Amino acid sequence: MNIYAMSDLHLDSTGEKSMDVFGEVWENYQEEIFKNIEDTVSEGDMLLVPGDISWALKPEEAYLDLKKLDALPGKKLLGKGNHDYWWGTKAKLKGMELETIDFVQTNSFKIGDVGVFGTRGWSSKEGEEYSEQDEKIFERELNRLEISLETLKDEKLSKRIVMLHYPPFRFSDSSPNEFVDIMKRYGVDICIYGHLHAEGHKFAVEGSVEGIEFHLVSCDYLKLKPKFIAIGGE
């Protein structure tokens, strides 16, 4: 099984939202995304999507976007992004009865001998605009990541992959933040993240950092094509 990743799909079945402000790559982006997933991902593969999946505000509105994704080849694991306002409780997400989609939310999934974990993450603790409320969210997201990683702590896995929406790095100097500290403690091998678009790509940190392999997988950064991440053994 090949494991691919691509985040920030920003699907919009209503046609009311536009991503054109972020560059030419976003022209007809939804059609290109669906085509490239279909051309790249096979039925036996897995696609990881760490956040900003749909512009919808409610689960019933997001359902139309998710059904299109559901119909594409392969299994999909979805994580929450800062624009996924439709994201609900585990019960509500499960109630959508999607056939090829599962949701990463203080849980984990075992793909062969590979473990997949994750949470949304949050903006790094920097700047005058960083508030007390931001601090609370940041700490809560750290806790959620640890809960997720705890679920398969004692399993013998060939790889541990973490999905985050926000980059686990400080914007001021690109140094790892507290999310990386937790990943190191649990022996994480790979971390994928999104959130960065257009000029934000200059903040991308990729490759090996403190023993963890990092990938920015925002779909515009990937030219709307899923990126190969790893092989999941049987």
UniProtKB/TrEMBL annotation:
Q: Where is the Calcineurin-like phosphoesterase domain?
A: 1-198
Molecular function per GO: 3',5'-cyclic-nucleotide phosphodiesterase activity
State the InterPro entries in the record.
Calcineurin-like_PHP (IPR004843), Metallo-depent_PP-like (IPR029052), Metallophosphoesterase_sf (IPR051158), Pesterase_CT488 (IPR014578)
Q: Which residues form a coiled coil?
A: none
Keyword list (alphabetical) reads:
Hydrolase
Q: What is its EC number?
A: 3.1.4.17
Record's protein name: 3',5'-cyclic adenosine monophosphate phosphodiesterase CpdA
